[in-house]
């Protein structure tokens, strides 16, 4: 009986996630669904659907949580639900104040992903693994660092290298980050993690997660956020401002293999930015060796240092 109820409730979504050419779907707000297609030049395609109201989506999450005996309480408990739907489709969803799309989500929004199961070709050859042939290098990151600071930054953006924007208060870190986002492919899927909504993302395929340091009442935290973010299939991850609460999780996110990871930190120089990031990680993960951690950061992360003198704001380092 429960499967009949669930299958009936899933009907409005089936036309989007069941076709064999669909890899997964993502819903970032009511009335709109994004389809990620197999082997498509444009990875995400958006469609409008009036049936996918906010109430429908929340009712769907509640029903799935009840059927699979998952806790779901966006306000005081767990706002995230994971499940495997009939047909072996992986379901990930979040609702409530921890997710917002725009200013209309005053009381909180809703976002979900459903992974398809159809794969055009599952042979090793489809992964370009053949006896006697070298492995392909997919999106290899070049170690070249151009001499010109502007070229160095643009190379890092185009290369998908992680970038740490550093500066004191009021140096314009968030404004600088917002401009950087305008240089990213508009077809990218962007996920942000913030204490409060400040980052302005021009890409329409986006999800904004909020973890307030002062108004957090439910069981959602940075440790749980890590698994959710990677399941939401981002092309770009924006980590917001680094703090002792989120530093270790942001460092783990940086290691998940996603391109275009950007975050900000309070520091007076690029060297101090690496040290501050490491010290915040060590606050919750003391087992790391500080020297090794900073050395690894310098290999992986580019730093853009911003400074201010009165009304003058300037980039003073790009490393």
Short note summarizing the structure:
The protein is of the alpha/beta class and 319 residues long. It is built from eight helices and 14 strands.
Description of the molecule:
This protein has about 325 residues and is an alpha/beta fold. It contains eight helices and 14 strands. The model has no long low-confidence stretch (mean pLDDT about 90).
Distance between the termini: 60 Å
How much helical structure, as a percent, in the residues?
25-40%
Which structural class matches the secondary elements?
alpha/beta
One letter per element, helices H and strands E, the order comes to: HEEEHEEEEHEHEEHEHEHHEE
State the low-pLDDT regions, or none.
none
Main beta sheet, described? 8 strands, mixed
Q: What is the tally of helical segments?
A: 8
Give me the side-by-side strand order of the main sheet: 6-10-9-11-12-8-13-14
Mean pLDDT: 91
Choose one word for the global shape: globular
The whole-angstrom Rg is: 21 Å
Question: Would you count the extended β strands for me?
Answer: 14
The fraction of residues in strands falls at 25-35%
